Amino acid sequence: MKNYTEYQDKTVLVTGGAGCVGSNLSRKIAELGAEKVIILDNMSSAYEWNIPQKENIEFIKGDILDDRVLKRVFKSDPDYVFHLAAHFANQNSVDNPEKDLMVNGIGILKVLQYAQLIGVDRFVYSSSGCGVYGLDSKMPFKEHDISISLHTPYQVTKLLGELYTNYFNNLYEMPIVNARFFNVFGPGEVPGKYRNVIPNFFYWSMTNQALPITGDGSETRDWTYVEDIVSGLIAMGIEEEAIGEAINLGSSKDHKVIDMANKVNSLTGNPEGIAYIPRRDWDAKTKLLSSIEKAKDILGYKPSINFDDGLEKTYQWFSYNWDNIEESAEFDY
């Protein structure tokens, strides 16, 4: 990653900054010399033990739907806003579609309004490459080939967020960038009912449970290590050519779910193996793969952590933080 001096002595707001991407992003920006990094998170799916502890990081517990909280954080006049707060993710949105719309729709609209009032230097929005591309999109997914035939409220509201950021760019000339994440994994993501498959698999494997695969295991995903996602986001905050663009952040490599599960079991020494269960009704995309040519051209983006190394680093984080993870993980059995 370039040593971006542009963040030195700046104030940066990271909504959803206590989550996996947010905590790693906040730590990196703090290390780049920001005067202050403000983490705003309602802790609905995050934990204070996971927040980076640095002198130039300030944590504010609050909700992006609360105007009093937004007035407080924007009173600090942030130069950059990274909007990662979201109602996550697909199954959660199917179970709670109204809450999904409130957080991912009204929430981003409120944050954009406050950002526009103070005139931020850059607004970077975390969209979803796994969400805005559909069955009618060609792989590897390129940024122009989005779909309006989607399968979950989360996918709908992630696309809605992009439409709002584009609107603020078009009407107010707000310098926005839409970051389309692909299957992020790595240190910082605590397992739970609505969390991603890799942290959940590590949790179940470390507690000697069979890993449940929905489908036959031949399904593929474009898993991308969180440090690579952070590198892309930091570049999006600075590169002028990125303004007004949607840009994929992925690994551009696909891996089978069954191979990932076997690697997790091998790392942890789990003897229980695999359990196959029916695919969820909304889970229509059996394969995901990003094109990252645009990110390479505009951002100089180059994923540097291969998948196996990323899994090992994630397992190391799980092992080091196991007591906190075991206490925090929430599942319905």
| Beta-strand percent range | 15-25%
Compute the gyration radius: what is it? 19 Å
Indicate how many domains the architecture comprises.
2
CATH topology-level fold name of the largest domain:
Rossmann fold
* Overall helicity: 25-40%
Contiguous runs where pLDDT drops below 50 for at least 5 residues: none
Q: Any idea of the CATH class of the largest domain?
A: Alpha Beta
Main β-sheet, spatial strand arrangement: 3-2-1-4-5-6-11
Number of helices: 12
Count of individual beta strands: 13
SS class: alpha/beta
Question: Element order, helices and strands?
Answer: EHEEHEHHEHHEEHEEEHEEHEHHH
Main sheet specs: 7 strands, parallel
Task: Give the overall pLDDT as a whole number.
Answer: 97
Q: Which CATH architecture of the largest domain?
A: 3-Layer(aba) Sandwich
The first-to-last residue Cα distance is 42 Å
- CATH level-four homologous superfamily name of the largest domain: NAD(P)-binding Rossmann-like Domain
Shape: globular
Kindly describe this structure.
With 333 residues, the chain is of the alpha/beta class. It folds into 2 domains: 5-184 and 223-249, NAD(P)-binding Rossmann-like Domain (Rossmann fold); 187-222 and 253-286 and 305-326, UDP-galactose 4-epimerase, domain 1 (Alpha-Beta Complex), CATH 3.90.25.10. The protein has helices at residues 20-31, 67-74, 90-95, 97-118, 129-132, 153-172, 197-206, 226-236, 257-268, 293-299, 307-320, 322-328; strands at residues 11-15, 36-41, 57-61, 80-83, 122-128, 176-181, 184-185, 211-214, 220-221, 224-225, 246-249, 255-256, 274-277. The strands form 4 sheets. It has a 7-stranded parallel β-sheet, with helices on both faces. The protein has a two-stranded parallel sheet with strand order 7-10. It has a two-stranded parallel ribbon with strand order 8-13. Helix 1 crosses helix 8 (226-236) and helix 2 (67-74) packs parallel to helix 4 (97-118).
